[in-house]
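Recall the central idea of this unit: under ordinary conditions, the amino acid sequence of a chain determines the structure it adopts. In this exercise we apply that idea directly, starting from the sequence alone.
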Amino acid sequence: MKLELQKQLFDKYPQLFTQKDLPPTQSNMCFGFECGDGWFTLLDNLCSLIQSNEDYTETQAMQVKEKFGGLRFYYTGGNDFIHGAVMLAEKMSEHICEECGDKGSINYDAGWLRCRCEKHKEE
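Accordingly, the structure predicted from this sequence is:
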């Protein structure tokens, strides 16, 4: 994800992303968002849902990345509501192009599974 989009999420949800300043031996959040810009809105909405929950203060993101064509959002703390929100966002990511945010599907591309729209599938 572009650094400016990443910074927007870090600035908007500072308590959720406190682990971004930890070394890699303690958290993978130091690597930032390891996914494409197309999932920015999905991640922003997920973080907003997490923050709206009463147990939000105990929840910290440990890693956010793409794996097997879908979003993976690893965290500590939280409750059933947060768990459900994360599961929903991860499932939705399988239908959103990781590059642009348009409707997409998971495709096999040069040895990797990626979620892409028709335009980015061809590139």
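Residues 21 and 96 are 29 Å apart (CA to CA).
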